Amino acid sequence: MKQHHSGTMSGRTVLVTGGTGGIGRATAIGLATMGAQVAITGRDRGRTEDAGGEIHAAGGGQVYAFVADLSSQAEVRQLAEEVLRTLSRIDVLINNVGGYWNTRHLTADGLERTFALNHLAPFLLTGLLLDRLKQSGQARVVTVSSNAHAMGRIDFEDLQGMRSYSGARAYNQSKLANILFSYELARRLRGSGITANTLHPGLVNTPFGAEDPAAIQRSLVPLLRPFMKTPARGAATSIYVASATDLEQVTGRYFANSKPKKSSERSYDEAAAARLWQVSADLVGSRDDTLS
Question: CA-to-CA distance for 49 and 55, rounded, in angstroms?
Fold first, then answer.
């Protein structure tokens, strides 16, 4: 059913990574119904185009569908080029893409997949799109984290899980990295007209992690499913942080249930955030001043 909003996002262009299913697709649909011009990314062309059609049907506006595997840095760079060619403005970038793997997988760049997709992809893509975001005058970078970040710590001695790997540990670390990145980005962009915030969407009923689930996930998820949020409810905080007029000047904050919330103590470690930024810039071979 088509929802009717006041068109508060009319005239704004939003890019949602990982927009083919779950929270990402629900976020894109929600913003499209508010009048935004929406662009999404997905790995599979068929699924991405199907989602684009659904978002267009919900909002009526033009929808752009970009195909890229964001665990590959070459594809992130290619995506950024394509986005810059296609979108004359970007008002909101929603770093939504993410994944969970119980066993250790390597990307095309030889990096551990959880860290590469969940943290390095948004780090690199945001940097490549920053100038276009600045041009819109008042832009937002919204990064989807998780309350799993509270159990995470950044293991600078073994960021890639080479010595010992646990799917949960890698995921928790990547979600803490999302928050450290978002807070550091907010510090670096103060006064630029771009805000950077992060959020926890809640426990949402999606096929997340289904490619390579942990045993606990296989046994627990069916029991928890009745208590989980629908993707539409899970997207509510992303939509709020992307669109709320009272957040125009708010930056460097963490949100849950569409309210500002304190994140874990480790997430406020500015020295760790600065170190993570430098390590990340090295890992993506950044030639971009904004990232180095």
Answer: 10
**For residue 53, what pLDDT is reported?**
96
Lookup: tokens for 65 = 């569908």
183 tagged catalytic: no
d(CA 207, CA 230): 12
pLDDT of residue 8: 87
* Residues contacting residue 57 through CB under 8 Å, at least 6 positions apart: none
**Of 163, 166, 123, nearest in space to 141 by CA:** 123
Domains and CATH numbers, the chain: 13-283 (3.40.50.720)
Name the strand (E) or helix (H) holding 65. Answer: strand 63-67
In this prediction the pTM is 0.91
Instruction: Decide: 100 and 167 in contact? Cβ < 8 Å.
Output: yes
Among 171, 183, 240, 254, the one annotated catalytic? 171
Q: Which residues of 142-171 are buried (b: 16+ CB within 10 A; e: fewer)?
A: bbbbbbbbbbbebeeeebbbeeebebebbb
